[in-house]
């Protein structure tokens, strides 16, 4: 907590803020914060409004920013409490890692900021389920978050539709199945491009590859449409079981059922480590 900006201020209070043990002397306080002399005259008025915490701002959009490295480059000593103001429009996949911040860390996420995950890629192929989206924020160390913005996992992709077969004599024709659409989110872990929700594709028609007897028509089959991908923090949609077929055939049916759609990426992976000063908008699950 910052020292008072006006009025009474004591050497004891200053020493407590900066972790100086008794006896407290001004020489132990040289250069403890910006604006405090490193030599020569130093007085209590130099400490008005000062704090032991180190504060820096991430103002430019970034993919997988390394908070520890950025803070160190900005002048953090590795021990002081760290306050990070995130005002950038977009942050792709923020991971605090598993090494604790000695003095603690607080993230202030501004109202105009989205911390988001990577959207799941399109999925398809007979019996293939959707792909899960990725996390937006991950931590294995204690952190306080004041979220005024949006923290959203990547959308899951839709699953492929049902497959359909038709038999003609001894030949089986198996349809394509429609691919599931991709999930909304960043294009990759290194990208700041945001892809929108992808829509499922319709299956293409497959015909019996050989000749048919006179007067009969080519057997054909079409699989189900793929499911749409999920938006930020939402799972994908299941592929369709509505298939079609026709022509001359001896048997028909579903070849492979559509698998489950992709799960949403979590908004937070490591929620048990987070103290929420303000939850704000979180899209996607909270994994402890």
Could you characterize what this model shows?
There is one protein chain. With 288 residues, this protein is mainly beta. Helices cover 5% and strands 25% of the residues. The protein has 2 helices and 22 strands. The protein has helices at residues 11-17, 67-73, and strands at 54-58, 62-63, 82-86, 90-92, 94-95, 105-109, 114-116, 137-138, 143-147, 150-152, 164-168, 171-174, 185-186, 194-195, 206-207, 220-222, 244-246, 251-254, 268-269, 274-278, 281-283, 286-287. The radius of gyration is 29 Å and the shape is rod-shaped. The mean pLDDT is 90.
Q: What is this structure, in a nutshell?
A:
The chain has 288 residues and is mostly beta strands. The chain contains two helices and 22 strands.
Strand order of the largest sheet: 1-3-6-9-20
How many H/I helical runs? 2
Poorly predicted tracts of residues = none
Strand portion: 25-35%
Bin the helical content.
Answer: under 10%
Provide the residue-averaged pLDDT: 90
Helix and strand pattern: HEEHEEEEEEEEEEEEEEEEEEEE
**What distance separates the N and C termini?**
29 Å
Total DSSP E strands: 22
Category by helix and strand content: mainly beta
Gyration radius, to the nearest Å?
Answer: 29 Å
Outline the secondary-structure elements.
Layout: H1 11-17, E1 54-58, E2 62-63, H2 67-73, E3 82-86, E4 90-92, E5 94-95, E6 105-109, E7 114-116, E8 137-138, E9 143-147, E10 150-152, E11 164-168, E12 171-174, E13 185-186, E14 194-195, E15 206-207, E16 220-222, E17 244-246, E18 251-254, E19 268-269, E20 274-278, E21 281-283, E22 286-287
Parallel strand pairs: 1-3, 2-4, 3-6, 4-7, 5-8, 6-9, 7-10, 8-19, 9-20, 10-21, 19-22
Antiparallel strand pairs: 11-12, 11-18, 13-14, 15-16, 16-17
